[in-house]
């Protein structure tokens, strides 16, 4: 999944690892992973085996019988135990690949070693009234996790902070020899979902050997960032909002920080170009991010994110719009509060984001009013004579 004009969401977890000094990385991929694998091959092929560096890709279909994919997050590691054994590592950090944040994992690893924990869980500090949507950690004053609750109706508060709770980030540190045995036991349990959050972590918590690591202690921030930034962009609304956030005058997440770069595949494209300079037909962009290869031809862009190779024709008006790579917007189209999929051609004069009923008729419109537009949706609209 694309993010931030030119990156992919997985680039954040991989960049955090690289910037933290981690040079031995494996990515477990599930079904329909071709675009993800291609991105890693093109953008992350700079590791050198002779320096004991690698980025391995571990597809589920190549480890066991084809009908058995990864059954859960823990199973994704279990199916590759023999490969991890060959790496000869002492510690292993388990990461989710679908979150936006900047974090120094070395600080979390140091805490894990210092406490002698069996598992250290990366945790967000969130308002207690919002914690019901997360797995919540109940800790004592030392940071030891005394209870783990999955999406509780009444989340426990943090010691000394009655209005805040600790929510799991899905980031875990283990000693490999310990995790290996735990995974073997879990694989033999027919009642298990083979998931870290549902099975592995609660079991360790019951043994009293789990500790929480607060994201605020290892979040990477520059002078422009005032608070730790972490986003799960798994919904249309969240994806739209996180991209729009980047267009703010002072965004909550600083992508311009050269000391902690977000590495990605840099496609060779020409610079963005703005053409036409007439009243009502002026190529312009205000409080927006415009990527390379874009041509803004007499269009007026406001508060929007334009990914690589987007083309806008005269009199078109994106406003709070996310246009994924290769999207083309024809003349006089108006796009408001929407996400336009990659390669989509928006017809001349089409208006999206101003009539909720019309949007919902043809496209996917969320309850908060964000419209997702794909080419099959537009094709269906065209076939019915609209």
Automatic annotation (TrEMBL):
EC number: 2.7.7.27
Pathway stated in the Swiss-Prot or TrEMBL entry: Glycan biosynthesis; glycogen biosynthesis
Domain Nucleotidyl transferase residue range list: 3-247
Catalytically driven reaction(s): alpha-D-glucose 1-phosphate + ATP + H(+) = ADP-alpha-D-glucose + diphosphate
Single GO biological process annotation from the record: glycogen biosynthetic process
Keyword flag Zinc-finger: no
Keywords: ATP-binding, Carbohydrate metabolism, Glycogen biosynthesis, Glycogen metabolism, Nucleotide-binding, Nucleotidyltransferase, Transferase
Segments crossing the lipid bilayer: none
Cross-referenced SUPFAM superfamilies: Nucleotide-diphospho-sugar transferases, Trimeric LpxA-like enzymes
InterPro entries named in the record: ADP-Glc_PPase, ADP_Glu_pyroP_CS, GlgC_bac, GlmU/GlgC-like_hexapep, NTP_transferase_dom, Nucleotide-diphossugar_trans, Trimer_LpxA-like_sf
Site feature (Could play a key role in the communication between the regulatory and the substrate sites) residues: 30, 69
PROSITE patterns named in the record: ADP_GLC_PYROPHOSPH_2 (PS00809), ADP_GLC_PYROPHOSPH_3 (PS00810)
Any one GO molecular function term: glucose-1-phosphate adenylyltransferase activity
Residues that hold alpha-D-glucose 1-phosphate according to the record: 70, 135, 150-151, 168
Enzyme class: transferase
Pfam family, one: NTP_transferase
Domain Glucose-1-phosphate adenylyltransferase/Bifunctional protein GlmU-like C-terminal hexapeptide: 270-373
Assembly description: Homotetramer.
Family of the protein in this entry: Belongs to the bacterial/plant glucose-1-phosphate adenylyltransferase family.
HAMAP family in alphabetical order: GlgC
PANTHER family: GLUCOSE-1-PHOSPHATE ADENYLYLTRANSFERASE (PTHR43523:SF2), GLUCOSE-1-PHOSPHATE ADENYLYLTRANSFERASE-RELATED (PTHR43523)
Role of this protein: Involved in the biosynthesis of ADP-glucose, a building block required for the elongation reactions to produce glycogen. Catalyzes the reaction between ATP and alpha-D-glucose 1-phosphate (G1P) to produce pyrophosphate and ADP-Glc.
Stated name of the protein: Glucose-1-phosphate adenylyltransferase
Organism name: Corynebacterium variabile
């Amino acid at each position: 999944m694309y993010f931030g004009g030119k990156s992919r969401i997985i680039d954040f977890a991989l960049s955090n690892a690289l910037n933290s000094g981690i040079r031995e990385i494996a990515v477990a991929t599930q079904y329909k992973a071709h675009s993800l694998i291609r991105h890693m091959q093109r953008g992350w092929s700079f590791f050198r085996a002779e320096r004991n560096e690698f980025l391995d890709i571990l597809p589920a279909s190549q480890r066991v019988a084809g009908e058995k994919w990864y059954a859960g997050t823990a199973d994704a590691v279990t199916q590759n135990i023999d490969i991890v054994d060959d790496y000869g590592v002492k510690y292993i950090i388990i990461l989710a690949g679908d979150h936006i944040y900047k974090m120094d994992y070395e600080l979390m690893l140091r805490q894990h070693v210092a406490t002698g924990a069996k598992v250290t869980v990366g945790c967000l500090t969130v308002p207690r009234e919002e914690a019901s949507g997360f797995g919540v950690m109940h800790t004592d004053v030392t940071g030891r996790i005394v209870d783990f609750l999955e999406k509780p109706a009444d989340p426990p508060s943090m010691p000394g902070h009655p209005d805040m709770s600790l929510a799991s980030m899905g980031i875990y540190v283990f000693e490999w020899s310990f995790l290996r045995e735990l995974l073997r036991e879990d694989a033999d349990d027919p009642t298990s979902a083979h998931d870290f959050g549902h099975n592995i972590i609660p079991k360790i918590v019951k043994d009293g050997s789990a500790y929480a690591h607060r994201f605020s202690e290892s979040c990477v921030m520059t002078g422009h960032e005032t608070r730790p930034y972490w986003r799960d962009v798994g919904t249309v609304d969240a994806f739209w909002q996180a991209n729009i956030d980047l267009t703010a005058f002072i965004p909550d997440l600083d992508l311009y920080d050269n000391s902690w770069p977000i590495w990605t595949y840099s496609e060779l494209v020409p610079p963005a170009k703005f053409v036409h300079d007439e009243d009502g037909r002026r190529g312009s962009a205000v409080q927006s991010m415009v990527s390379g290869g874009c041509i803004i031809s007499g269009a007026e862009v406001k508060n929007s994110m334009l990914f690589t190779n987007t083309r806008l024709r005269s009199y078109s008006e994106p406003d709070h719009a996310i246009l994924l790579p290769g999207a083309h917007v024809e003349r006089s189209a108006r796009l408001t509060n929407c996400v336009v999929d990659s390669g989509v051609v928006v017809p001349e004069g089409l208006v999206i984001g101003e009539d909720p009923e019309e949007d919902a008729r043809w496209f996917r419109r969320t309850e908060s009013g964000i419209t997702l537009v794909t080419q099959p949706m537009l094709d269906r609209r065209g076939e019915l004579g609209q």
